[in-house]
Amino acid sequence: MTKLTYERPVIQKLNTGTMNKFGSRTEYTPVTHIEGVSVKSLMAEYGSPLFVISEPQIRRNYQSAVRAFKTRYPKVQFAWSYKTNYLNAVCNVFHQEGAWAEVVSIFEYQKALKNGVPGNKIIFNGPDKSADDLRTAIINHSLIHIDHFDELYLLIEIAQELKTKATVAIRVNMDTGIYPIWDRFGFNYENGQAWNAINKIMSAPELELNGLHCHIGTFMLSAGAYATAAWKLCDLAWNIKLKWNHMIHYLDLGGGFASANTLKGSYLQGSDIIPSTEDYADAIATTILNFGFKPDELPLLFLETGRSLIDDAGYLLGSVLATKRLSDGRRATIMDFGVNLLFTAFWYNHKISPAQEFSHHTEDMVLYGPLCMNIDCIRESINLPLLSKGDQVVVHRVGAYNMTQWMQFIQMRPNVVMIDAKQNVHLIRTKESIDTMLRYELVPEHLEQFKL
Amino acid sequence: MAITILFVTFINPSVGIFGLLSVLGSNIMAYVLGFDKKQVEKGIYGFNALLLGLALGYLYAFSLAFLLLFVISIFAVFFMTAALQASMGKINLPFLSLPFLFCYWMIALASPQLGALSFKLLPNPSEGLILFEFPDFWKVFFNTLSATFFTKSVWGGLMIAIALFLASRIAFSLALLAYLSAYGAYQIFGVSVSALTENLVGSNFIFFGIAIGCFYLIPNVYSYITVVAFTPFLMLLLVGLNQALSVFNLNGFTLAFTLLTMLVLYALHHRWIPRFLFLVQIQYYSAETTIYKYLSAVKRLKFAQHSQFALPFFGPWEVSQGYSGKLTHLGDWSNALDFVISDEQHKTYQLNGLRMNDYYCYNKPVLAPADGLVLQIINHVNDNEVGEMDTKQNWGNTIILKHSEGLYSQLSHLKRDSFKVNEGAWVSKGTVLASCGASGRSPEPHIHFQLQQSPLMGSKTLPYPIAYFMSQDKSGLQFNYFEVPKEDAIIFNVETQTSLKQAFDWQPGKKLVWFNQKYPTQLTSFEVFTDAFNRTYLFCATTGSYAYFINDGTRFFFTDFEGDKNGFLFQLYLSCFSVLLANYPTIKMKDNIPQIHFQVPVLHWIQDVLAPFYVFNKVMFEGENCMEETASVQSNYLIKSKIVTHFMGLKVESRNYTAFIGRKGFEKLEFKYKGIKEEWLCVN
User: Fold this and answer.
1) Would you state the pLDDT for residue B457?
2) Inside any domain, residue A173
């Protein structure tokens, strides 16, 4: 018989009255294993904190998203949104499954090329493309999505200089009933800016308009907005066909599909209110199919969804550094990971599970990170078992954006591992060390020496 | 062959001269009077005139009266030919040597009264130099052959035999077979075999052998048997007819052959289903060409008459119940397919599967499998709860499409009120009809798909293949062509690529202009036409070559080539022999190219003789498509193909082709073999 763990005593206010629908006690499920690998062993080997990515979960997500679209629409192609998570191992799982690459900077572009993605299977989005970047993209026959008129004019100049024809698409922003409108990217549909850009491209001999792109927002809680977006893109495509006798090759509906995380301020749990991939697919496919294109001229449909494909495949494992009581009596728990690693803690109430068994007693607490900085708060209020120093927790659905937006502030970034389908653990990014940081620093000669 | 015959007929100069004059006269007449030039070139109008000219030159001495008679008879035989061709062509029968016979009899019946005409003294058969005494069997054979052209000479016959062999091994072997049978029959019936060399008697057998064995019928073992089996009959007919005609002092010549050939062909034309003996549909005037092209067509055009059905859904689905399934596809309803969507764990639902929405296929679009008329829509049955069945309204919500007379499709268990089309509408393949549901006898959502011969809902099912579909199994992606999907298979429609489709969209009237990169000023142009058999083809006026092709929207393939094999059209024909108009780099299109295009000199004679029975040589085509690395958004493709010639299992020759397809269609074709390396560009 193993020794029972000591749990400190806790005083809880007794709530009298009727039981609520959840009963009188809190149930939580300790998460001791991820994809069959024990959390303890992972942390023992790779340290704490630790990011864990499940390869089988990525594949399941991808396959089910592809199934949702391909069984509704004849021509579908996914492109992996690099900014969501551009660890090479993650990208390559998507590429193995057949996804192209969607990048928003030359850094991501180069990453995709180095991963072995052919230039003509990279979608180049974003407002920041320099003349050199565009030159590279034209030469590689990448799919260039123009963001603004300055880029359009620059492209014409470069195409003239290269004496070649650049195949391009434009990003369109529009009112889909979701506010605020993301009108800072691309050309607006309602005020005619997009139509203006289209006409400019169609009359420029250096450019060939290949597609239309939109990305109406992020974490979209309404599938209907995509139906509106798809309709507006179809409308532009139809008008291009009428005016220029030119059939657009593809429509890119971007991404923004929600994951099952719970947004801050949301009354209900995320998984109860988000539309499923099937709902998004139905809204988009039905709109395009019913728009009136002939079966032969239906445009290819690109999707760049990132978050909903990777979020629940990522976990963050961490340990309790200390517990303390705040001045107002609340319990505070200090973890060894904070907003430096969990950037998404700014907008999600992340689900956090203990990684070992506890009794059924719980208490409300604040979860702080290790940074010496007041805003480093992971959860303002969370009900968890009675954690003590050294206890381990698992943060769920952290696959999207955290491993690209993480900060090197005070702390260094930890190891990232991937668990494959055969439950083998692979280190896919080693933790940073002091050398990592010092490698890029230079100290002027007169500052090298000092005496204290 | 022609030169040999000309030479042999000139053994007796007057036979030769009048033979030649008659052919010329007849053909000039046909040209001047405006008959079909192609028919003239094929010798339709010259053949009977030749026989008559030869006969007249053989029988009558030269005089003014003879000259007049000759001219008149050429007129007569020409008009007789034209008239018989028109009337007998309607019932698909050849007129053979009937015009010659009628004209000859007319003259023969009249000539005793015409004093100015005199018969020639029949020259003694000159044996020429007797260097070598042939055995009787061969002597009679050669004499028979030369007698066909009103010359009696063993050496002449030998030359004709050699020429016949060089022209066609199959025809030669049949001539020999027919002669052998006749020789045997004459021996058995106790008739002197020397009779074979007189008055074209032996020619009847040889003509019959070639005509039935390989000219009007596809040469195969049954056509050979027919030749042997009919020989005694032919002999009786021959002897009997000559007996009857002798009353009028006439000779039957090839009458027996003509009548018997017509009899056999006329009978064969009126079968319900052709079996064993197959009539030649397109006459190439060469048994070798016929057999090789026939063998290729039988294989490649097997499904040319089938309607092309696609799968009635988007994306990959699983066949949950196939033909003769264990659950409900029984008895008269065996030949139906049920489809569901399954995930990687072969589950058809997510979560716990207690609600319709958990099922992957629920509410997914159901498509028209082929063009057709919406005949009936049943739309009043509610979806069942999961696990329940409505056996009273077995088929649930159903749509019935009419594709052609006697070919209907039924799609059942659809979702109520999901129909996107109305009764009476014409829908094209791939149109969204309704959504998948679970109405009727359907415990969980699925599509039931069946083809039937009657428009009634739930009729007896008709087994019918799906034209093209892809299947995914453990060994990877497979291409399926006119097959019935198997139970448990994961299948989906072929996703065709617009730019590939457009590149091969060769409608009649379209012109393709090419030039060799080395000689940019020499343009070669091909124009698209359609012929009387409704075959579409590219025609190259420079080389007079034809390349026939079919583009069914999913696959482009050439079906035949005639003309100059050194021309560029032949290269194009080989390079795109079979092209899938889709982008599946792992899928290889494999096909057999007709032997006739790749013959190994001299050695191929062995294969030719055996071709009606067994083909051991092979010309393999293997092609694949891939997206060009430097192309933008799936618009540029490379079609890489390889042609390998095998002779008795040994690799003889290999050719490599790469076709470049761009935004505007065909751009370039490169090929490499035997030190030839050329690059041709297409002017769009």
Assistant:
1) 92
2) yes
Residue A357 is predicted with a pLDDT of: 87
Q: Is A433 on the interface with B (CB under 8 A)?
A: no
State whether residue A116 sits within 8 Å of chain B by CB. Answer: no
pLDDT for res B600: 80
Which of B491, B632, B634, B664 is the best substitution to test chain A (most A C-beta atoms within 10 A)?
A: B632
- Rounded to whole angstroms, the Cα distance separating A203 from A156 reads 11
Tokens of A396: 């769920």
Q: What is the 3-state secondary structure (H, E, C) of B28-86?
A: HHHHHHCCCHHHHHHCCCCHHHHHHHHHHHHHECCCHHHHHHHHHHHHHHHHHHHHHHH
The pLDDT, as a whole number, for residue B646 is 86
Q: Say if residue A68 is in the same domain as residue A37.
A: no
Task: Enumerate residue ranges in chain B where pLDDT < 70.
Answer: 1-2, 121-133, 628-634
Cα–Cα distance measured from residue B675 to residue B125, given in angstroms and rounded to the nearest whole number: 55
The tens digit of pLDDT for each residue in A60-70 reads 999 999 999 99
Which of B432, B183, B445 lies closest to B318 in space, CA to CA?
B445
Give every residue of chain A whose pLDDT is below 70, as ranges.
14-27
Beta bridge mates, B508: none
Q: Give me the pLDDT at residue A149, please.
A: 96
- Residue B18 sits at the vertex; the CA angle it makes with B167 and B158, to the nearest 5 degrees, is 35
In this prediction, residue A363 carries a pLDDT of 87
Report the domain count for chain B.
Answer: 4
Q: For residues A59 and A150, state if they share a domain.
A: yes
Q: How far is Cα B570 from Cα B558, in angstroms, rounded to an integer?
A: 11
Report how many Cβ contacts below 8 Å link chain A to chain B.
71
Number of domains in chain A: 2
A249 contacts B635? CB cut-off 8 A: yes
Check whether residue A279 and residue A332 sit in a common domain: no
pTM value is 0.85
Percentage of chain A beyond pLDDT 70 is 97
ipTM: 0.83
Give the per-residue pLDDT at B642: 92
Nearest-Cα distance to chain B for A285, in Å, is 10
Please report, to the nearest 10 degrees, the dihedral formed by the alpha carbons of residues A344, A347, A349, A353 taken in order: 0
Tell which residue, A380, A314, A307, has the closest CA to residue A341.
A314
B142, containing H or E segment: helix B136-147
Min Cα separation A256/chain B (Å): 22
DSSP 8-state class, residue A311: G
Whether A447 is in a domain gets the answer no
Beta carbons of B428 and B371 less than 8 angstroms apart: yes
Predicted local confidence at residue B143, as pLDDT: 84
Gap from B381 CA to chain A (nearest CA, Å): 23
Which residues contact residue B441 at a Cβ distance below 8 angstroms, ignoring those fewer than 6 apart?
B328, B389, B390, B391, B394, B395, B396, B413
pLDDT of residue B506: 93
SS3 B317: strand
